[in-house]
Specification:
single chain; alpha/beta; two-stranded antiparallel ribbon; globular; binds nicotinamide-adenine-dinucleotide; binds glycine
């Protein structure tokens, strides 16, 4: 199976996303052109280090690229200002320069925090993404959003900083726990729900294969997702004209739930997105924008794959509490929040006039 190379074409920056089998073992040859001094610095987490770090180190050694390594604890709690300071301090101690390769080797947590460190180190340093989770391969490693969380909310401190290269090795998904695969799958399904009913249909037919670790299905699902994201990001790299905001389908609801549950492993980001997308469809139905049938199709597919759809099994938080979390959202403007709603499957749109009292009542289970 040959590698798929998808270019991300932005006005002032272009880079490739390579998707394939056993890319990690060949990573040296792809990274070498990005290390003029043959120096790299790998940031990873404990789980990824245990499973896959030796392969990456061997690949870099083969092409004489020196690699220093920082291993952080696994999980969302790492995406904080203390760990950011640690990364920056180690990079400075290692005298990493702007054109050396900082390698983010892990899931979205490692990608987001390392990308942010690269964005602010020496006012911007090159970095390479090697995403190791399904979620990171289909979403977080592409498009240049980098961030850390604050106790007040998710991703509140961050920057747009595009990678120089993304290497997505489908083989790495083989060690991912089923729960993490399902969480990543939510972000794949999102692309069908946003603007591609044909891809949603493909997901309904092939989603179970992705979760059963079928490499062909995973490779196709990752490639279609990256292509969909690339098309959206190219139109709106810094989320200013409303196009990129479409990628946040389910995220306003989802982030509120993640905040309520303390960014813990009680609710993974992708699980929050799964519930959030269902809430966006249900709310759209309640407002009369979307047919019950389309919401039913989404619920049936999520349920068939054991994806979460209902936040009531996780928390008793009421609508006002969840809306209070939403008001810390980055997308907040003049005291209100734009919401991603749906006119149907493949027809997501940004609604800037949603009444937050209506959202509160909806989350409380009240029907008008
Ligand atoms: P994660 O990075 O915490 O990884 C999930 C778990 O899987 C961790 O325990 C990790 O150690 C483990 N893991 C990683 N690769 C593995 C492998 N190959 N085999 C076995 N275990 C492995 O979480 P995630 O779901 O990848 O990313 C979630 C984060 O991404 C959130 O912080 C979210 O906000 C962020 N995100 C960012 C963007 C963006 O555009 N920047 C988009 C979506 C999500
Ligand atoms: N994950 C949303 C974005 O990249 O814009």
């Amino acid at each position: 199976m040959s590698d798929i190379i998808l270019p991300i074409d932005l006005q002032n920056h272009r880079y490739d996303v390579m998707i394939g089998i056993d890319i990690l073992a060949r990573a040296g040859e792809f990274i070498k052109p990005f290390t003029p001094r043959n120096r790299s610095f790998i940031v990873t987490d404990e789980t990824v280090a245990r499973l896959h770090l030796s392969t990456l180190k061997e690949a870099l050694a083969k092409v004489d690229v020196q690699a220093e390594v920082l291993i952080l604890p696994s999980g969302e709690a790492t995406k904080n200002i203390t760990q950011l300071e640690k990364i920056l301090s180690k990079l400075i101690d290692a005298k990493i320069e702007r054109t050396d390769a900082i390698i983010a080797f892990g899931g979205g947590v490692i990608g987001d925090i390392t990308g942010f460190a690269a964005a602010i180190l020496r006012r911007g340093t090159h970095f390479i993404q090697i995403p190791t989770t399904l979620l990171a391969q289909v979403d977080s490693s592409v498009g240049g959003k980098t961030a850390i969380n604050m106790t007040q909310g998710k991703n509140l401190i961050g920057a747009f900083h595009q990678p120089a290269l993304v290497l997505a090795d489908i083989t790495l998904l083989g060690t991912l726990p089923p729960r993490e695969l399902r969480a990543g799958y939510a972000e794949i399904l999102k692309y069908g729900l946003i603007n591609d009913p044909g891809f949603f249909k493909w997901c309904v037919e092939n989603g179970a294969d992705i979760l059963a670790s079928d490499k062909n299905a995973q490779r196709y699902g990752v490639a279609q997702s990256v292509a969909a994201k690339a098309a959206i990001v190219a139109q709106d790299p810094t989320e200013t004209n409303g196009t990129r905001a479409l990628l946040n389908l389910g995220h306003t609801f989802g982030h509120a739930l993640e905040a309520e549950l303390g960014y813990s492993d009680r609710l993974l980001h992708g699980e929050a997105v799964s519930i959030g997308m269902m809430l966006a469809f249900d709310f759209s139905v309640q407002c009369g924008f979307c047919s019950v049938n389309d919401a039913h199709k989404l619920r049936a597919h999520l349920t068939e794959l054991s994806m979460p759809t209902d936040f009531r099994t996780l928390t008793n938080a009421d609508g006002a509490t969840l809306v209070a979390h939403m008001m810390q959202d980055k997308k907040r403007q003049s005291g209100t929040l734009p919401f991603l709603l749906a006119r149907g499957i493949g027809q997501t749109y940004l609604d800037k006039n949603v009444d937050l009292e209506k959202i509160t009542a909806f989350l409380n289970g009240e029907h008008p």
